[in-house]
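Async update (no meeting this week)

Hi team, since we skipped the sync, here's where things stand on the single-chain job. The sequence we agreed to prioritize is pasted below, unchanged from the tracker. I ran it this morning and attached the output directly underneath so nobody has to dig for it. Comments welcome in thread, and please keep replies under the output.
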Amino acid sequence: MTITAEQRTHAQDLLDFIDASPSTWHAVATAERRLLAAGFTRLEEAVSWKIETGGRHFVIRGGSSLIAFVIGQKPLAEAGFRIVGAHTDSPGLRLKPRAVHACEDHVRLGVEVYGGPILATFTDRDLSLAGRVNIRTATGFETRLLRFESPLVRLPNLAIHMNREVNEQGLKLNKQTELPLLLGILEQGIEAGNQFMTHVADSLGVAEKDILNSELNVYDTQKGTFWGAEQEFIADSQLDNLASCHAALTALMATEKPQSTALCALFDHEEVGSGSAVGAEGSFVSDIISRIETGLGLDTEAQHRATANSFFISADMAHAYHPNFPAGYEPNHKVTVNAGPVIKTNANQRYSTGADTAARFMLLCEKAGVPCQQYAHRTDLGCGSTIGPIVAAKLGMPSIDVGSPMWAMHSIRESAGVQDHGHMIAVLKTAFVE
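Output:
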């Protein structure tokens, strides 16, 4: 297997991107830093915009969703948009608002399950917490990002001596009673809540009384790595779907003077249905598109023409064939790691792909010089979905769902291919400038 220096560089940059982004809010902050360094300017939704040909801008909503765009050289009504969408969130565990409680002589943190993680993979890992905290100020409050760099909490497994059937029955965890995270031993004379809030306040350099509330999720402190006989694979948390976010951003930042207006939309809350102000089912992308069209002076007729001349690519990860579990796959649709981007199809519109949009993406892959694969789920298994059908229905644009193949989707430690990530960046670059 020949892995180019560029592919390995892209893969390492992806691992760096993920390791800097232990929460959705950190992911958007990481993306913002990269966009600013690439010459993009931030626009605020609450102020007027000045939109001009060649403009490179981005907008953040709610701290966890981001849309970046480059205004194309051709009239928008004729050239339309080239849009790539992905999502910033990953399934996992999130602290409850009043998470801290004492249990016997131990301090534990209560959690909620966010989305559909493989819960067993969170046991016996070096876990910590990251997210955002709202701090009281003289005029209201301000939001600060918080990340505990070192392992802070843990979910220890029950010894096999008390769970003799674990290897035959699998590890099953009660979400209410067996998922609370172990923080430490209760100190005499100190309330459990104060024991934790002291850590938060000290990390932010503020007084405990000024902390209003927080949103914190659990993350794995182990950094991403290469693995395999030729170091041809990568392993990290949140590959689903920060890998697609990174590929879309990297492709957009490399796009200079596109003919069509190139747009990258990164949404929160995909893992829980997208139904929020910052999710794909909200108004974020349609609001930004409308403001771009208004800023460029398009009337209603021209706006409809722009939509008809547009193309939307929903980029989310795909299920790679696992040789240990052949019964999980449709026999004629076994996609392979490091064999190229995957076109995802479902007759019941769990994916937005149609024969016409699939053909269009195949030609983009040919133009980019990368292979592509096709995936369909087993008919007797429920198929997952993503933002593709939601955004396609909202915008009325031709749409396709694609992704890079990966193993262990929704595990706290996922795996994918070095070549595949480079291939995805290459085809998305091509899509932005077609």
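Quick observations from my side:
The chain has two domains: 5-90+237-433, 92-220.
Residues 318 and 405 are 5 Å apart (CA to CA).
Reply here if anything looks off.
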